[in-house]
Amino acid sequence: MVLNNISEYASDENWHELKCILKRLYSDFIVIEIPSDGNVLEPKFNDNICSEEVDEEEKEEQGNVDIVTLPKELECLNEQISKFSQILEGEINECIVNLKEFNKDVRKQLYGFIKNNYGSALMTDCKDGILTVKKSKGNASDTRKRKFWPSARGDYLHFTITKENMDTNTCIDLIASRLNLKPSLFSVSGSKDRRAITVQRVCAYRVNKQRLCRQHFRHLWLSDFVYSKIKLELGDAYGNHFSIILRDVDNNFNSEEFNNRIEKWKTNGFLNYFGSQRFGSCGVQTSEIGRLILNQKWEEAVKALLAPRSDAPERINKCLKHFNDSGNAKQALQLLNDRSAIIERSLLLFLSKYPNGYKGALLALPRNSRTMYIHAYQSAVFNHIVSKRKRIFGLKYLPGDLDIEGKILNDENLNKIENVCLPLPSFENKLPENEVGEWYKEIAKEDGIDYESFKKIERHFGLGNVYRPFIQKPQNVSWQLLNYSFRDEQLQNCEFIPKNEVNEIQKEKIKEENEENIKKAIKLKFNLSSGTYATIGLK
């Protein structure tokens, strides 16, 4: 099996290792998305302030709904009834209405009012003349709002999320859960690092901006809301801007030598390996799980995913060990009390109903999760090919090389290494018409895979065809040397986090440090194309 082979460098210079610390603080690694227009996102907070009054857009939205007027007999209940909308927004959990003084006919009118104005979004329960109104489970209210969406307004609400120490999917799940929406209504152009502060655009289908900009989260900020007729799709972003702090640099740091490194880095670029984020973490390499799936060894793949592992908490390993020893998924599931174990729970839940349904258990995983294993295998093959090509041919163009669209590079003006792309193995992708293309076939044979294997699982895994540049070059590179004295001194702020929420280091603590113990850090800023790993570039 091909391993994640990252062993070569674009430059043949024999640079000594630059010792430093990366990501001591989340703020040491700031990533800001560059949308398709090529301009780095800028902070905009004005739209994040919501008026108490209904804006013109909401009035327009209400104008499309057949609102039923409150009967005169119930006008005395205006105060309680006005709280119904607060229930829908999640501001309150329930509303109590005393109907003891009203006869049966008047009560019917109130039920009719609720049904006609709120549909199945609200649920009611009346006991001894006391009516309790709550939000229904599901998202009926949002379905109704989207159904009557103003025609002049774009279907998609675009907004910026700034997150700290959270992955992108977790953020989407959190926002969707708060609004009682399905995560599938949200889309992004790509995922961002978890252990960092990252900024990116998100779009949501037919969600009113008033609902979103009222929300407050920990370590997550929303801003710059704009309606659009265009959906944000995976891969739409041009790239990312990075601002990175490298701490505890040697006091004998040579600025001239480092600047030479930077110039070489800008000129030669770096080998465009997939980073470790692409491979996730489980008991065995995720790329090995991908190989098993491609070989349709469903049982082996599932059992590998459910094997005890050294990096898992004891509470999860207890469950996995029980399944590994007994094969009883139902009993193992009862031992699983960790909500974060989404993969394990999904597999065991399916197997508890269908003990031999290994293929079904894998296909029951969320699409992003099950696709990750095939992507990991593709990425491992790509990394292996990159290393072997650099080791044998260096940074040379070879006749038969492919471009970003999978076409052979024939134009003499384009026959340069920076235009060479390598395919991720799949059924649809074309292979280079040279020795490199033969390497793909050799790996597939070694792993017991033919390219028909990709075709058989395409429908369930959506692999597509991707050609990835062999070399990447950073753009707009700049750097500066910083001095600091406090170990966890914050050396950069993210402008997308409101100033009143920035966790500033107490200056008194800094003063307590010995002034002679000055430390050095490098602040490095650069842009990279979408899908390129900054950590690989730094290496």
Automatic annotation (TrEMBL):
It comes from the Eukaryota. It holds the Pfam family TruD. Keywords: Isomerase, tRNA processing. It comes from Meloidogyne graminicola. Coiled coil: none annotated. This is TRUD domain-containing protein. It catalyses: a uridine in tRNA = a pseudouridine in tRNA. Residues 269-473 form the TRUD domain. Belongs to the pseudouridine synthase TruD family. One of its GO terms (molecular function) is RNA binding. One of its GO terms (biological process) is tRNA processing. One of its GO terms (cellular component) is nucleus. The keyword 4Fe-4S does not apply.
